Amino acid sequence: MDKIADGEVQLSTLQSLCVLSICNFTSGKVTQAGLNIAMADHIKDTAHGVETDSQYNERDKCFRSISVLKKLQSSVLPPIKKMVPSSLYPVHRDDGIPFYAEKLCDVWQMARAYAASQSNANDPPPWDSRSEFSEVMSRHLELDCLIPVKYRFRLNNMAEYDSETLLQNRGYWAHFIFIQFVYSAIPCLLNHPFLLSLRLRHFRHTIPESFIQQSYEQLTRFMGWIIYFIDLLERKSFQVSDPILAHCVVIVSTIHLQHSFVEDPVLQRKASRGFEKCLRFLKRMGQMWPSVALMVENLKMLQGSVVCLPPGAAGQERANASSEPSFSINARLLWDILIYDRAGQVNARADSSMPGSTLVSKTSEEVAEVRAVDEEFDLIGSAGLTGHKSMIHQGPAYAPDEENILDLDEDTLDTTPHAITNMAITIGDVNLEGLGGYGNEESMFLAQDYGRAIGDWFDFDAM
Q: Within this chain, do residues 317 and 229 fall inside the same structural domain, yes or no?
């Protein structure tokens, strides 16, 4: 800071600001972290040319690090921008795996903005091409046109390498894992039942059944990928340290938590195992980063806030009300956990470490928003969004004859590690074509799971 005050900023000064920003953010000082990276970014914009190639390379890496940290850690998010037509279907070229990880950060920042934004009555529904949901999903799909084959799953199956080989090339695999986690977490965040329910709060028409089906398919597909890589990293003893990956796991764990209260004992057991698996992953990383340790505590607090409501309790006005038990949850806490710069705070609230008493005030609008969220999300015990006031009784996902064909026995599923690895490869081939390859085998999620979940969105298996 003395160098900045004295006007003697060097490249090492900017590098120090980057490290300081990371340390501040993971310690809960989000505002201070933002100031550090904003200062580095402002100084970066005033820099000019250097003399040697080695200096240029080091400076370029530093500048790219500043850009990435802005996208990953910024607590004041810009509005979602529409795609520029010329950015579609870019020319394929190999710019190195760090370049594509940086491109993914752009879409991740948009997804974070989506999760943190408040909807109003004039916003288009998620399936509308003008909606934030559609904009982010379009950018997410655009990545499939950008990433070269050599960095996709089919040519980078970590299960085929031993732990020592992976550690020897840790720089490459760390970027690969980052891409896999964040790419999968984006559709999980966009299709999160809670965030979708917020955007349908003012909707007064029938929700398209095809949208419910597609949203569920996105959830099951990409949650399965994250769970697969959690298992793989544990088997390979490959320790990751990026707190961004921790929040990706937090997003998935909140959905597992919702599934752990279903009546079906098989699905309940699988969801509970998935939730515990996520917690183990987060606890290991929490030994490195205080913010991740707080994510674990906030998840436990969220788990403890789930309460079974007695029949006829207030707030159970659902389109498909039945005798099935219903649940309430701390919706404010759930929303805050889904916002990255709050998830690692005490009680998952906004950072207040810097503003003094003369700068802090809780407006009536904020109080009203908290009350609206708590009253709106009462769908934990319902059949997903089928309990929303705008939903009608849905028809089957498949034609009657197709449903009979797909009525298979779950007990026949081979769950050995070798089988799980093979199925995960197929997910990359069939369902994550942009980051995987191509294949014909059956995927990790059986078709009857998909059909059943259309009638009960929360009752699905992502193990």
A: yes
8 A C-beta contact, residue 259 and residue 268: yes
Query: Are 319 and 393 found together in one domain?
Result: yes
For 437, list phi and psi in degrees, rounded to 5. Answer: -125, -135
pLDDT averaged per 10 residues in sequence order, the chain, 463 residues: 70 87 82 84 75 68 87 63 49 78 92 88 88 92 86 90 93 94 95 87 76 84 93 94 95 89 77 92 94 94 86 52 70 92 82 67 50 52 48 64 52 44 39 41 39 42 41
Range of the domain at 220: 104-138+179-354+362-399+447-455
- Give the residues across from 327 on adjacent strands: 308
Domain shared by 338 and 191, yes or no: yes
Give the CA distances from residue 212 to residues 51, 360, 444, in Å, rounded to whole numbers and listed in that order: 57, 41, 20
Nearest CA among 77, 58, 64 for reference residue 18: 64
Angle between helices 243-259 and 265-286 (to 10 degrees): 160
Q: Return the bridge partners of 309, or none.
A: 326
CB within 8 A of 181, min separation 6: which ones? Answer: 226, 229, 244, 245, 248, 249
Distance CA 404, CA 447 (A): 11
Tokens linked to 117: 């934004």
Kindly report the pTM of this predicted structure.
Answer: 0.78
Count, residues in the chain? 463
Residue 91 within any structural domain of the chain: no
Kindly state whether residues 253 and 293 are assigned to the same domain.
yes
Q: Are residues 9 and 132 in the same domain?
A: no
326 shares a domain with 207 = yes
Chain Cα centroid distance, residue 290: 20
Closest to 104 measured CA to CA, from 215, 225, 42, 187: 187
- Within 13 Å of residue 286, how many CA atoms lie on the same side as its CB? 21
The token pair that represents 96 in the structure block: 């190195």
Residues 304/81, Cβ–Cβ less than 8 Å: no
Q: Is 260 within 8 Å of 268 (Cβ atoms)?
A: yes
Q: Report d(CA 33, CA 38) in Å as an integer.
A: 9
Structural contact between residues 272 and 260, judged by C-beta atoms closer than 8 angstroms: yes
